[in-house]
Design a protein that fits this description.
The complex is a heterodimer of chains A (167) and B (335). By secondary structure, chain A is mainly α. In chain A, 59% of the residues lie in helices and 8% in strands. Chain A has a two-stranded antiparallel sheet with strand order 1-2. Chain B is of the alpha+beta class. In chain B, the strands form 2 sheets. An 8-stranded antiparallel sheet of chain B has the order 2-3-4-5-1-8-10-9. In chain B, strands 6-7 form a two-stranded antiparallel ribbon. The longest helix of chain B is centred in the C-terminal third of the chain and has 28 residues, at 216-243. Classes of the chains: A mainly alpha (167), B alpha+beta (335). Chain A binds chain B through residues 40-45, 49, 69-72, 80-86, 89, 96, 99-100, 103-117, 120-121, and chain B through 19, 21, 23-25, 27-28, 104, 126, 133, 137-147, 149-152, 154-156, 158, 179-180, 183, 186, 188-190, 195-196, 209-216, 218.
Protein backbone atom coordinates (compact mmCIF):
# COMPACT_ATOMS: atom_id res chain seq x y z
CA UNK A 1 0.00 0.00 0.00
CA UNK A 2 1.28 3.48 -0.89
CA UNK A 3 1.46 6.38 1.58
CA UNK A 4 -1.81 8.35 1.50
CA UNK A 5 0.10 11.62 1.90
CA UNK A 6 2.85 11.49 -0.76
CA UNK A 7 1.49 8.60 -2.84
CA UNK A 8 5.10 7.57 -3.51
CA UNK A 9 6.61 5.50 -0.71
CA UNK A 10 5.16 2.32 0.81
CA UNK A 11 2.98 3.05 3.85
CA UNK A 12 4.66 1.69 6.97
CA UNK A 13 2.90 3.69 9.72
CA UNK A 14 -0.76 3.49 10.60
CA UNK A 15 -2.44 6.44 12.40
CA UNK A 16 -5.77 5.75 14.07
CA UNK A 17 -7.92 8.75 14.99
CA UNK A 18 -10.88 8.25 17.31
CA UNK A 19 -13.57 10.91 16.95
CA UNK A 20 -16.77 10.18 18.88
CA UNK A 21 -17.92 6.80 17.63
CA UNK A 22 -16.04 7.20 14.37
CA UNK A 23 -12.61 5.65 13.78
CA UNK A 24 -10.44 6.94 10.93
CA UNK A 25 -7.35 5.02 9.86
CA UNK A 26 -4.59 6.59 7.75
CA UNK A 27 -1.58 4.87 6.25
CA UNK A 28 1.60 6.93 5.93
CA UNK A 29 5.27 6.41 5.08
CA UNK A 30 8.06 7.02 7.59
CA UNK A 31 9.21 10.13 5.70
CA UNK A 32 5.82 11.89 5.96
CA UNK A 33 5.50 11.01 9.65
CA UNK A 34 9.00 12.41 10.27
CA UNK A 35 8.09 15.63 8.46
CA UNK A 36 5.20 16.09 10.87
CA UNK A 37 7.42 15.34 13.85
CA UNK A 38 10.14 17.75 12.68
CA UNK A 39 7.65 20.58 12.24
CA UNK A 40 6.30 20.12 15.76
CA UNK A 41 9.83 19.78 17.23
CA UNK A 42 10.71 23.13 15.62
CA UNK A 43 7.62 24.66 17.14
CA UNK A 44 6.28 25.22 13.62
CA UNK A 45 2.69 24.50 14.48
CA UNK A 46 1.12 25.87 11.32
CA UNK A 47 3.08 23.44 9.09
CA UNK A 48 2.27 20.58 11.43
CA UNK A 49 -1.41 21.57 11.49
CA UNK A 50 -1.75 21.89 7.73
CA UNK A 51 -0.06 18.51 7.10
CA UNK A 52 -2.21 16.87 9.73
CA UNK A 53 -5.35 18.52 8.36
CA UNK A 54 -4.52 17.36 4.85
CA UNK A 55 -3.99 13.82 6.02
CA UNK A 56 -7.10 13.72 8.15
CA UNK A 57 -9.46 15.14 5.58
CA UNK A 58 -8.89 13.74 2.15
CA UNK A 59 -12.56 13.50 1.33
CA UNK A 60 -13.71 16.33 -0.96
CA UNK A 61 -17.04 16.58 0.87
CA UNK A 62 -15.16 17.77 4.00
CA UNK A 63 -13.38 20.51 2.06
CA UNK A 64 -16.75 21.78 0.78
CA UNK A 65 -18.20 22.07 4.31
CA UNK A 66 -18.86 25.66 5.29
CA UNK A 67 -19.89 27.62 8.36
CA UNK A 68 -23.43 29.02 8.02
CA UNK A 69 -22.59 31.92 10.36
CA UNK A 70 -19.42 33.37 8.78
CA UNK A 71 -19.25 31.51 5.45
CA UNK A 72 -15.74 30.09 5.98
CA UNK A 73 -15.24 26.80 4.13
CA UNK A 74 -13.30 23.93 5.61
CA UNK A 75 -10.89 24.15 2.65
CA UNK A 76 -10.15 27.79 3.61
CA UNK A 77 -9.46 26.71 7.18
CA UNK A 78 -7.15 23.99 5.88
CA UNK A 79 -5.08 26.50 3.94
CA UNK A 80 -4.94 29.26 6.58
CA UNK A 81 -5.17 27.28 9.84
CA UNK A 82 -7.56 29.93 11.16
CA UNK A 83 -11.29 29.66 11.87
CA UNK A 84 -13.76 32.42 11.02
CA UNK A 85 -15.95 32.55 14.13
CA UNK A 86 -16.93 30.68 17.29
CA UNK A 87 -19.67 28.83 15.40
CA UNK A 88 -17.02 27.22 13.13
CA UNK A 89 -16.09 25.05 16.13
CA UNK A 90 -19.62 23.51 16.01
CA UNK A 91 -19.84 23.19 12.22
CA UNK A 92 -16.39 21.59 11.82
CA UNK A 93 -16.65 19.73 15.10
CA UNK A 94 -16.09 16.25 13.61
CA UNK A 95 -12.93 17.41 11.84
CA UNK A 96 -11.59 19.56 14.69
CA UNK A 97 -11.98 17.03 17.50
CA UNK A 98 -9.26 14.63 16.29
CA UNK A 99 -7.08 17.61 15.39
CA UNK A 100 -7.41 19.16 18.86
CA UNK A 101 -6.74 15.81 20.46
CA UNK A 102 -3.63 15.37 18.37
CA UNK A 103 -2.31 18.87 19.12
CA UNK A 104 -3.22 19.11 22.81
CA UNK A 105 -3.45 15.45 23.82
CA UNK A 106 -6.71 16.19 25.66
CA UNK A 107 -10.18 17.33 24.66
CA UNK A 108 -11.78 18.76 27.82
CA UNK A 109 -11.04 22.30 28.99
CA UNK A 110 -9.70 22.36 32.54
CA UNK A 111 -8.78 26.01 33.05
CA UNK A 112 -10.50 29.23 34.06
CA UNK A 113 -14.15 29.81 33.14
CA UNK A 114 -15.97 33.12 32.67
CA UNK A 115 -18.27 34.41 35.42
CA UNK A 116 -21.56 32.94 34.13
CA UNK A 117 -19.96 29.53 33.58
CA UNK A 118 -18.27 29.55 36.97
CA UNK A 119 -21.62 28.96 38.73
CA UNK A 120 -22.50 26.24 36.21
CA UNK A 121 -19.21 24.46 36.86
CA UNK A 122 -19.53 24.86 40.64
CA UNK A 123 -23.05 23.37 40.48
CA UNK A 124 -21.87 20.39 38.39
CA UNK A 125 -19.02 19.83 40.84
CA UNK A 126 -21.39 19.98 43.81
CA UNK A 127 -23.74 17.38 42.24
CA UNK A 128 -20.76 15.17 41.40
CA UNK A 129 -19.53 15.33 45.00
CA UNK A 130 -22.98 14.38 46.33
CA UNK A 131 -23.19 11.46 43.88
CA UNK A 132 -19.79 10.21 45.01
CA UNK A 133 -20.92 10.37 48.65
CA UNK A 134 -24.17 8.58 47.73
CA UNK A 135 -22.23 5.77 46.00
CA UNK A 136 -19.97 5.44 49.04
CA UNK A 137 -23.04 5.25 51.31
CA UNK A 138 -24.54 2.49 49.12
CA UNK A 139 -21.27 0.55 49.23
CA UNK A 140 -21.24 0.85 53.02
CA UNK A 141 -24.91 -0.35 53.03
CA UNK A 142 -25.89 2.92 54.69
CA UNK A 143 -29.12 3.11 52.68
CA UNK A 144 -30.78 5.73 54.86
CA UNK A 145 -27.94 8.20 54.21
CA UNK A 146 -27.86 7.24 50.51
CA UNK A 147 -31.59 8.00 50.19
CA UNK A 148 -31.13 11.36 51.91
CA UNK A 149 -28.30 12.23 49.53
CA UNK A 150 -30.41 11.13 46.52
CA UNK A 151 -33.23 13.44 47.67
CA UNK A 152 -30.78 16.29 48.15
CA UNK A 153 -29.45 15.82 44.61
CA UNK A 154 -32.99 15.75 43.16
CA UNK A 155 -33.99 18.82 45.11
CA UNK A 156 -30.89 20.76 43.96
CA UNK A 157 -31.47 19.79 40.30
CA UNK A 158 -35.19 20.72 40.51
CA UNK A 159 -34.30 24.04 42.07
CA UNK A 160 -31.72 24.70 39.36
CA UNK A 161 -34.20 23.82 36.59
CA UNK A 162 -36.84 26.09 38.12
CA UNK A 163 -34.33 29.00 38.12
CA UNK A 164 -33.27 28.36 34.52
CA UNK A 165 -36.87 28.15 33.21
CA UNK A 166 -39.00 30.50 35.31
CA UNK A 167 -42.76 30.02 34.75
CA UNK B 1 12.40 36.08 42.46
CA UNK B 2 15.92 35.40 43.65
CA UNK B 3 18.88 37.41 42.45
CA UNK B 4 20.36 34.08 41.36
CA UNK B 5 17.48 33.48 38.88
CA UNK B 6 17.54 36.98 37.39
CA UNK B 7 21.09 36.29 36.22
CA UNK B 8 19.53 33.99 33.64
CA UNK B 9 15.80 34.83 33.44
CA UNK B 10 15.42 38.17 31.70
CA UNK B 11 11.62 38.33 31.91
CA UNK B 12 8.43 36.33 32.48
CA UNK B 13 5.34 36.83 30.36
CA UNK B 14 1.77 35.57 30.29
CA UNK B 15 -0.55 36.24 27.39
CA UNK B 16 -4.23 35.37 27.04
CA UNK B 17 -6.08 35.10 23.71
CA UNK B 18 -9.72 36.17 23.89
CA UNK B 19 -12.51 36.88 21.38
CA UNK B 20 -15.81 38.71 21.83
CA UNK B 21 -18.68 36.23 21.59
CA UNK B 22 -20.80 38.23 19.16
CA UNK B 23 -18.26 39.06 16.42
CA UNK B 24 -16.47 36.98 13.74
CA UNK B 25 -12.78 36.32 14.44
CA UNK B 26 -10.28 38.89 13.14
CA UNK B 27 -9.56 37.25 9.77
CA UNK B 28 -13.24 37.72 8.79
CA UNK B 29 -13.93 40.89 10.75
CA UNK B 30 -14.88 44.09 8.89
CA UNK B 31 -13.34 47.48 9.81
CA UNK B 32 -16.46 48.53 11.77
CA UNK B 33 -16.31 45.44 13.96
CA UNK B 34 -12.56 45.90 14.37
CA UNK B 35 -13.20 49.44 15.62
CA UNK B 36 -15.88 48.08 17.97
CA UNK B 37 -13.25 45.77 19.51
CA UNK B 38 -10.98 48.78 20.14
CA UNK B 39 -13.86 50.80 21.62
CA UNK B 40 -14.90 47.99 23.96
CA UNK B 41 -11.35 47.41 25.19
CA UNK B 42 -10.84 51.13 25.74
CA UNK B 43 -14.12 51.45 27.62
CA UNK B 44 -13.24 48.49 29.88
CA UNK B 45 -9.82 49.84 30.81
CA UNK B 46 -10.87 53.45 31.20
CA UNK B 47 -10.35 54.39 34.81
CA UNK B 48 -10.01 57.59 36.80
CA UNK B 49 -7.12 56.17 38.86
CA UNK B 50 -3.89 57.63 37.49
CA UNK B 51 -1.69 54.68 38.45
CA UNK B 52 -3.80 52.27 36.46
CA UNK B 53 -4.26 54.24 33.26
CA UNK B 54 -3.87 52.78 29.81
CA UNK B 55 -2.63 54.64 26.75
CA UNK B 56 -4.26 53.74 23.44
CA UNK B 57 -1.98 53.35 20.41
CA UNK B 58 -3.79 53.08 17.06
CA UNK B 59 -1.18 51.66 14.70
CA UNK B 60 -2.61 53.48 11.66
CA UNK B 61 -1.82 56.82 13.36
CA UNK B 62 1.80 55.87 14.07
CA UNK B 63 4.95 55.91 11.98
CA UNK B 64 6.53 52.57 11.09
CA UNK B 65 9.45 53.52 13.35
CA UNK B 66 7.18 54.09 16.36
CA UNK B 67 5.38 50.80 15.68
CA UNK B 68 8.70 48.93 15.59
CA UNK B 69 9.78 50.70 18.72
CA UNK B 70 6.72 49.26 20.56
CA UNK B 71 7.66 45.83 19.23
CA UNK B 72 11.23 46.19 20.52
CA UNK B 73 9.74 46.96 23.94
CA UNK B 74 7.73 43.71 23.60
CA UNK B 75 4.50 45.67 24.08
CA UNK B 76 3.15 44.50 20.72
CA UNK B 77 3.95 41.50 18.55
CA UNK B 78 5.39 41.28 15.07
CA UNK B 79 2.02 39.88 13.93
CA UNK B 80 0.16 43.02 15.01
CA UNK B 81 2.35 45.02 12.61
CA UNK B 82 0.81 42.96 9.79
CA UNK B 83 -2.60 44.41 10.77
CA UNK B 84 -1.55 48.03 11.11
CA UNK B 85 -4.78 49.29 9.45
CA UNK B 86 -6.99 48.06 12.33
CA UNK B 87 -4.46 47.00 14.98
CA UNK B 88 -4.26 48.83 18.29
CA UNK B 89 -2.65 48.42 21.68
CA UNK B 90 -3.65 49.59 25.14
CA UNK B 91 -0.56 49.91 27.28
CA UNK B 92 -0.65 50.39 31.06
CA UNK B 93 1.37 53.28 32.36
CA UNK B 94 4.00 51.03 33.98
CA UNK B 95 4.24 49.07 30.69
CA UNK B 96 3.88 45.77 32.54
CA UNK B 97 0.47 45.12 30.96
CA UNK B 98 -0.54 45.61 27.35
CA UNK B 99 -3.62 44.57 25.41
CA UNK B 100 -3.26 44.07 21.68
CA UNK B 101 -6.50 44.51 19.76
CA UNK B 102 -7.23 42.95 16.34
CA UNK B 103 -4.16 40.75 16.11
CA UNK B 104 -4.94 37.06 15.38
CA UNK B 105 -7.64 37.24 18.07
CA UNK B 106 -9.75 40.23 19.10
CA UNK B 107 -7.70 40.62 22.27
CA UNK B 108 -4.26 39.48 23.31
CA UNK B 109 -3.79 40.39 26.96
CA UNK B 110 -0.17 40.39 28.02
CA UNK B 111 1.57 40.89 31.34
CA UNK B 112 5.35 41.01 31.47
CA UNK B 113 7.60 41.28 34.53
CA UNK B 114 11.40 41.30 34.79
CA UNK B 115 12.99 38.14 36.18
CA UNK B 116 11.28 34.90 37.18
CA UNK B 117 7.70 35.91 38.03
CA UNK B 118 5.24 33.88 35.97
CA UNK B 119 2.61 33.65 38.71
CA UNK B 120 2.63 37.39 39.33
CA UNK B 121 2.35 38.00 35.59
CA UNK B 122 -0.62 35.60 35.39
CA UNK B 123 -2.39 37.40 38.24
CA UNK B 124 -1.97 40.72 36.43
CA UNK B 125 -3.24 39.27 33.13
CA UNK B 126 -6.32 37.71 34.79
CA UNK B 127 -7.23 40.90 36.56
CA UNK B 128 -7.05 42.80 33.24
CA UNK B 129 -9.07 40.03 31.59
CA UNK B 130 -11.83 40.38 34.20
CA UNK B 131 -12.11 44.10 33.46
CA UNK B 132 -12.26 43.49 29.71
CA UNK B 133 -14.93 40.80 30.16
CA UNK B 134 -17.11 43.21 32.15
CA UNK B 135 -17.99 45.10 28.95
CA UNK B 136 -18.77 42.09 26.72
CA UNK B 137 -18.61 38.29 27.17
CA UNK B 138 -15.90 36.25 25.48
CA UNK B 139 -16.43 33.22 23.23
CA UNK B 140 -16.42 30.23 25.54
CA UNK B 141 -17.44 26.59 25.29
CA UNK B 142 -17.75 24.38 28.37
CA UNK B 143 -15.82 21.57 26.66
CA UNK B 144 -13.29 23.50 24.57
CA UNK B 145 -12.79 26.50 26.83
CA UNK B 146 -11.99 29.89 25.31
CA UNK B 147 -12.46 29.71 21.54
CA UNK B 148 -9.65 31.23 19.49
CA UNK B 149 -9.03 31.85 15.78
CA UNK B 150 -6.35 29.16 15.70
CA UNK B 151 -7.24 25.84 17.38
CA UNK B 152 -3.70 25.64 18.79
CA UNK B 153 -4.68 28.33 21.33
CA UNK B 154 -8.10 26.96 22.26
CA UNK B 155 -8.76 26.10 25.91
CA UNK B 156 -6.99 28.43 28.30
CA UNK B 157 -5.85 30.64 25.41
CA UNK B 158 -2.79 31.11 27.58
CA UNK B 159 0.85 31.20 26.68
CA UNK B 160 3.23 31.43 29.60
CA UNK B 161 6.80 32.18 28.62
CA UNK B 162 10.14 32.94 30.16
CA UNK B 163 12.92 34.70 28.33
CA UNK B 164 16.21 33.09 29.26
CA UNK B 165 19.76 34.17 28.55
CA UNK B 166 21.66 30.96 27.80
CA UNK B 167 25.08 31.87 26.36
CA UNK B 168 26.94 28.86 27.79
CA UNK B 169 24.36 26.30 26.65
CA UNK B 170 24.59 27.89 23.20
CA UNK B 171 28.39 27.89 23.25
CA UNK B 172 28.47 24.21 24.20
CA UNK B 173 25.94 23.49 21.42
CA UNK B 174 23.34 22.07 23.78
CA UNK B 175 20.32 24.04 22.53
CA UNK B 176 19.44 21.59 19.73
CA UNK B 177 19.06 18.73 22.21
CA UNK B 178 17.24 20.93 24.70
CA UNK B 179 14.72 22.08 22.06
CA UNK B 180 13.90 18.50 21.10
CA UNK B 181 13.48 17.36 24.70
CA UNK B 182 11.30 20.34 25.56
CA UNK B 183 9.01 19.66 22.55
CA UNK B 184 8.22 16.24 24.00
CA UNK B 185 6.89 17.95 27.15
CA UNK B 186 4.34 20.04 25.23
CA UNK B 187 6.59 23.11 25.43
CA UNK B 188 8.53 25.02 22.81
CA UNK B 189 11.64 27.20 22.56
CA UNK B 190 11.67 30.23 20.29
CA UNK B 191 13.83 33.26 19.56
CA UNK B 192 13.59 36.73 21.11
CA UNK B 193 10.59 38.02 19.12
CA UNK B 194 8.48 34.85 19.32
CA UNK B 195 7.43 32.38 16.65
CA UNK B 196 9.86 32.07 13.73
CA UNK B 197 12.41 34.51 15.14
CA UNK B 198 16.12 33.86 15.68
CA UNK B 199 17.76 33.35 19.06
CA UNK B 200 19.71 36.62 18.86
CA UNK B 201 21.96 37.42 21.82
CA UNK B 202 21.62 33.81 23.07
CA UNK B 203 18.11 34.71 24.25
CA UNK B 204 15.44 32.02 24.18
CA UNK B 205 11.75 32.03 25.03
CA UNK B 206 10.47 28.86 26.66
CA UNK B 207 6.70 28.58 26.47
CA UNK B 208 3.82 26.12 26.51
CA UNK B 209 2.51 24.72 23.23
CA UNK B 210 -0.49 22.91 24.71
CA UNK B 211 -3.41 25.05 25.88
CA UNK B 212 -6.34 22.61 26.16
CA UNK B 213 -6.91 20.17 29.00
CA UNK B 214 -4.45 21.76 31.44
CA UNK B 215 -5.19 24.36 34.07
CA UNK B 216 -3.36 27.67 33.97
CA UNK B 217 -1.53 26.62 37.13
CA UNK B 218 -0.34 23.38 35.49
CA UNK B 219 0.91 25.31 32.46
CA UNK B 220 2.80 27.80 34.64
CA UNK B 221 4.31 24.96 36.66
CA UNK B 222 5.43 23.10 33.50
CA UNK B 223 7.13 26.20 32.03
CA UNK B 224 8.69 27.09 35.40
CA UNK B 225 10.00 23.54 35.85
CA UNK B 226 11.74 23.56 32.46
CA UNK B 227 12.96 27.09 33.17
CA UNK B 228 14.47 25.96 36.49
CA UNK B 229 16.17 23.03 34.79
CA UNK B 230 17.67 25.28 32.11
CA UNK B 231 18.85 27.69 34.81
CA UNK B 232 20.64 24.80 36.57
CA UNK B 233 22.22 23.58 33.33
CA UNK B 234 23.38 27.06 32.36
CA UNK B 235 24.71 27.72 35.88
CA UNK B 236 26.74 24.53 35.98
CA UNK B 237 28.30 25.39 32.62
CA UNK B 238 29.09 28.90 33.88
CA UNK B 239 30.80 27.41 36.94
CA UNK B 240 32.70 25.01 34.71
CA UNK B 241 33.69 27.92 32.48
CA UNK B 242 35.02 29.82 35.50
CA UNK B 243 36.97 26.84 36.85
CA UNK B 244 38.47 25.80 33.57
CA UNK B 245 39.24 29.43 32.70
CA UNK B 246 37.88 29.03 29.20
CA UNK B 247 38.91 32.52 28.12
CA UNK B 248 35.52 33.66 29.36
CA UNK B 249 36.80 36.82 31.00
CA UNK B 250 38.83 37.78 27.93
CA UNK B 251 35.78 37.49 25.62
CA UNK B 252 33.60 39.39 28.06
CA UNK B 253 36.08 42.27 28.48
CA UNK B 254 36.65 42.49 24.71
CA UNK B 255 32.92 42.87 24.10
CA UNK B 256 32.67 45.40 26.92
CA UNK B 257 35.56 47.38 25.42
CA UNK B 258 33.86 47.51 22.04
CA UNK B 259 30.56 48.56 23.55
CA UNK B 260 32.27 51.31 25.56
CA UNK B 261 34.43 52.73 22.76
CA UNK B 262 33.23 51.66 19.29
CA UNK B 263 31.91 54.44 17.06
CA UNK B 264 29.40 52.39 15.14
CA UNK B 265 27.89 48.95 15.58
CA UNK B 266 25.28 47.13 13.53
CA UNK B 267 22.49 45.27 15.32
CA UNK B 268 23.80 41.70 14.84
CA UNK B 269 27.19 42.65 16.25
CA UNK B 270 25.51 44.51 19.10
CA UNK B 271 23.48 41.41 20.11
CA UNK B 272 26.64 39.29 20.09
CA UNK B 273 28.51 41.69 22.39
CA UNK B 274 25.40 42.33 24.47
CA UNK B 275 25.27 38.61 25.27
CA UNK B 276 28.91 38.59 26.38
CA UNK B 277 28.47 41.72 28.48
CA UNK B 278 25.32 40.30 30.14
CA UNK B 279 27.23 37.12 30.95
CA UNK B 280 30.08 39.21 32.38
CA UNK B 281 27.69 41.31 34.47
CA UNK B 282 25.85 38.21 35.76
CA UNK B 283 29.11 36.47 36.71
CA UNK B 284 30.56 39.52 38.44
CA UNK B 285 33.36 39.88 35.88
CA UNK B 286 32.21 43.34 34.74
CA UNK B 287 31.39 46.37 36.92
CA UNK B 288 27.96 46.86 35.34
CA UNK B 289 24.53 46.28 36.95
CA UNK B 290 22.42 43.64 35.18
CA UNK B 291 19.47 46.04 35.00
CA UNK B 292 21.49 48.45 32.85
CA UNK B 293 22.50 45.67 30.46
CA UNK B 294 18.86 44.54 30.19
CA UNK B 295 17.75 48.10 29.47
CA UNK B 296 20.14 48.16 26.50
CA UNK B 297 18.28 45.19 25.05
CA UNK B 298 15.40 47.57 24.28
CA UNK B 299 16.88 51.03 23.91
CA UNK B 300 19.80 50.06 21.63
CA UNK B 301 17.67 48.17 19.08
CA UNK B 302 17.16 49.46 15.52
CA UNK B 303 13.91 51.42 15.84
CA UNK B 304 15.03 53.12 19.07
CA UNK B 305 18.43 53.97 17.54
CA UNK B 306 16.75 55.36 14.40
CA UNK B 307 14.47 57.54 16.49
CA UNK B 308 17.48 58.80 18.45
CA UNK B 309 19.36 59.56 15.23
CA UNK B 310 16.44 61.70 13.99
CA UNK B 311 16.55 63.69 17.20
CA UNK B 312 20.25 64.54 16.84
CA UNK B 313 21.44 66.10 13.56
CA UNK B 314 25.13 65.36 14.30
CA UNK B 315 24.51 61.61 14.01
CA UNK B 316 24.93 60.23 10.51
CA UNK B 317 23.84 56.59 10.92
CA UNK B 318 21.68 54.31 13.05
CA UNK B 319 24.75 52.27 13.96
CA UNK B 320 26.47 55.41 15.20
CA UNK B 321 23.37 56.41 17.20
CA UNK B 322 23.33 52.94 18.77
CA UNK B 323 26.86 53.44 20.11
CA UNK B 324 25.95 56.82 21.61
CA UNK B 325 22.96 55.25 23.40
CA UNK B 326 25.01 52.29 24.68
CA UNK B 327 27.85 54.45 25.91
CA UNK B 328 25.56 56.94 27.64
CA UNK B 329 24.08 54.03 29.64
CA UNK B 330 27.34 52.19 30.36
CA UNK B 331 29.42 55.28 31.20
CA UNK B 332 26.76 56.50 33.61
CA UNK B 333 26.46 53.17 35.40
CA UNK B 334 30.03 51.97 35.74
CA UNK B 335 30.67 51.51 39.41
Amino acid sequence: MLCEECQKNPATVMITVLSGNETTIRHLCQECVEKMEVSIAKGDVSTFLSSLLNILSREPKQAALHCDACGLTYAEFQSSGKLGCAHCYDVFSDQLKPLLLRVHGRSQHAGRVPGAHREERAFAQCIQDLKTRMDQAVCAENFEQAAALRDEIRSLIDKQNAEVKPQ
Amino acid sequence: MSEHDSKIVVSSRVRLARNYHDLPFCNLNNPDNAQLCVDRAKQALDTPQAEDQYHLYNLRDMTKMDQLSLMEQHLISRDLLQHSDVGAALVRQDEQVSVMVNEEDHLRIQAMINGMALREAATMAFSTEDRLASVCDFSFDSQLGYLTACPTNTGTGMRASMMLHLPMLTRFKQMGNVTQTVAKLGLTIRGIYGEGSEALGDLYQVSNQVTLGRTEEEIIEAVSAVGRQLIDMENSLRQRGEKENLDLADGVWRSYGLMRFAKQMESGEFMEHWSNVRLGAAMGILPVPLGTVDELLTVAQDAHAKKFKHSDASLTSTDQARCVIIQAKLNAKEE
